[in-house]
Amino acid sequence: MLQCVDLEIEQGAFSLSNINFKVDKGEYLVLMGKTGSGKTTLIEAICGLRKVKKGQVLLHSNNITNLVPGQRQIGYVPQDGALFSTMTVAENIGFALKIRKWPKLKIEERVQELAVLLGVEQLLNRSVDNLSGGEKQRVALGRALSFYPQILCLDEPLSALDQATKSEIILLLQNLAQKLQLVIVHISHSESEAKKLATSILSLKDGILEKVSL
Ligand SMILES: Nc1ncnc2c1ncn2[C@@H]1O[C@H](COP(=O)(O)OP(=O)(O)OP(=O)(O)O)[C@@H](O)[C@H]1O
């Protein structure tokens, strides 16, 4: 279970305050709000990439507010995917395992397992540079899921995709949510995407978080 309690974040003139919500295992939270409303700021604070001024981030009631990102058990797919262009697909998916010093054979097994789950087996030896948008999203998901995180944070994973690929990735996300029973937090601008994926929707407006009915 992921919980934010009285979270307050301040960066320059922009601030978020009184951020309170709870997402249980197996739930799919979609976070909405117009451009500049603070969605990325909030998700980055949950992942440990932004400083929190006040309040707490809890994972299964453990206070993780002051842990570094690598200790939080959170997989993160940033807005542009941020794949490593000097690495192959397999190396991208295995990256977090390498820095966690997993043995080579175990990394290969996990990469293969994720490649099957995400439908990128045939791409493992390719460079990520010339992959399609949908393929890049699959690889970014693989990299985020590699170390069995308990939370998966996705920053607009569908925004750069054409309609057909969007539908394909929505199906994949529905499938992952059902199979892996994680907490998923997904930023989206699209109400129709949110309605297809979410078990709950929250919206940021003027620094305040509001529940949206499905
Ligand atoms: N390091 C920073 N210093 C000062 N202000 C910042 C900093 N980072 C972001 N901001 C401001 O915080 C506000 C929220 O930005 P954020 O990227 O979280 O919005 P968003 O809702 O994710 O937007 P979008 O939908 O366009 O991605 C914006 O006004 C932005 O300019």
Automatic annotation (TrEMBL):
Which keywords does UniProt give here? ATP-binding, Hydrolase, Nucleotide-binding, Transport
| EC number(s) from the headed UniProt entry | 3.6.3.31
The record's Pfam families line, in alphabetical order, gives: ABC_tran
Give the PROSITE patterns listed for this entry: ABC_TRANSPORTER_1 (PS00211), ABC_TRANSPORTER_2 (PS50893)
**Domain ABC transporter, which positions?**
2-214
Instruction: Note the InterPro entries from the entry.
Output: AAA+_ATPase, ABC_SmlMolc_Importer, ABC_transporter-like_ATP-bd, ABC_transporter-like_CS, P-loop_NTPase
- Molecular function terms from GO: ATP binding; ATP hydrolysis activity
Which SMART domains does the record cross-reference, listed alphabetically?
AAA (SM00382)
User: SUPFAM superfamilies attached here?
Assistant: P-loop containing nucleoside triphosphate hydrolases (SSF52540)
Q: Know the name of this protein?
A: Polyamine-transporting ATPase
Upper lineage is:
Bacteria, Pseudomonadati, Bacteroidota, Flavobacteriia, Flavobacteriales
